[in-house]
Amino acid sequence: MIEFAPPNPPLKGSGGGRTLSDTVYQQIYERISANEWPRGTRLPTEIEMADQFGVSRTVIREALLRLRIDGLIASRQGSGTHVIGAPSQRVVDFAEPGSVADLQRCYEFRVGVEGEAAYLAASRHTRPRIGEIEQTLVAMRACIDENRLGADEDISFHLAVARATENDYYQRTIESVTRAIRVGMSIAATLSHRPTPQRLGIAISEHEGILEAIRNSDPEAARARMRAHIEGARKRVFVGQ
Predict the structure, then answer these.
(1) Is 6 exposed, middle or buried (0-12, 13-18, 19+ CB in 10 A)?
(2) Which residues contact 45 (CB under 8 A, 6 or more apart)?
(3) Is the Cα torsion angle 69, 75, 80, 86 positive or negative in sign?
(4) What is the rounded distance in angstroms from the CA atom of residue 232 to the CA atom of residue 31?
(5) From CA 194, how far away is CA 8, in angstroms rounded?
(6) In this predicted model, what pLDDT tens digit does every residue of 189-226 receive, in sequence order?
(7) Rounded-to-integer distance, Cα 139 and Cα 146, Å
(8) Residue 77's beta-bridge partner residues?
(9) Among 214, 210, 217, residue whose Cα is nearest residue 233
(10) Measured distance CA(20)–CA(183) in Å, rounded
(11) DSSP states of the chain as a string?
(12) Residue 76 phi/psi, 5° resolution?
């Protein structure tokens, strides 16, 4: 089990809407990614971490919950919480200072919002809207031949799905997080062991599945496939899958 150094001054939020749990999450994430807390390490108790970080146990629980969702830690009755995953240090290196938790929250947000956008698109789509989505996939396939990242084309797909809802709040919402989407895609591309064409091929296949469900007017399948796609993207960034 880890032994902490003497307590530090209480944490303060880092601004930009970040919470104390974001700050704790990022600090634990960084220690795991830097191999300070390698796989198999037993973490301190919630009480010990609350004392070390100068925050409440509620804040610690929120941070640990995110790390469990990431697949980085696991808890078992009677044996405590252990590190089970090892994200790359390069996630921290490529992200802006203090922004790892922001990226995490962006993916979490997108799973809900874009899942519902796909649901509505399957319920309300028109032939012209389907054509717009199809054109973004044509552009993504061209990126394979040109060995390009395809960030703009990928984002265009998600915006086209949002437009197919016929509710411009969805498009405006996705436009507001395009910068975070680009950062996440750049990190995933850098960490991926797959060549660009293969990596893009996986994304295109997932997008095609979403389009198929929308075209077939199957809202439940569209929502499920969009959620799975974004969750998969999150794991490729944070867990290295």
Answers:
(1) exposed
(2) 80
(3) negative
(4) 24
(5) 41
(6) 766 666 767 878 888 999 999 999 999 999 999 999 99
(7) 11
(8) none
(9) 210
(10) 23
(11) ---PPSPPPPP---STT--HHHHHHHHHHHHHHTTSS-TTPBPPPHHHHHHHHTS-HHHHHHHHHHHHHTTSEEEETTTEEEE-----HHHHHHSPTT-HHHHHHHHHHHHHHHHHHHHHHHHH--HHHHHHHHHHHHHHHHHHHHT---HHHHHHHHHHHHHTTT-HHHHHHHHHTHHHHHHHHHHHHHH-SS-HHHHHHHHHHHHHHHHHHHHTT-HHHHHHHHHHHHHHHHHHHHT--
(12) -130, 140
pTM above 0.85, yes or no: no
Task: Report how far residue 60's alpha carbon sits from residue 221's, in angstroms, rounded to the nearest whole number.
Answer: 36
- Which residue matches tokens 């949002």? 162
Paired residues of 73 in beta bridges: 83
Token digits of residue 52:
């070390």
Q: Which residue has the tokens 């704790």?
A: 24
Give the Å distances, CA to CA, from 170 to 30, 138, 221, 226, 233.
33, 23, 19, 14, 20
Rg of the Cα atoms in the chain: 20
74: phi then psi, degrees, rounded to nearest 5: -145, 145
The distance in angstroms from the start CA to the end CA of the chain is 27
Question: Cβ(53)–Cβ(22) under 8 Å?
Answer: no
Hey, CA dihedral for 159, 164, 169, 170, is it positive or negative?
negative
User: Which tokens is 17 given?
Assistant: 């809407």
pLDDT average per 10 residues of sequence, the chain (241 residues): 47 59 88 88 94 94 89 87 79 64 83 97 96 96 86 94 97 91 78 71 93 98 97 77 55
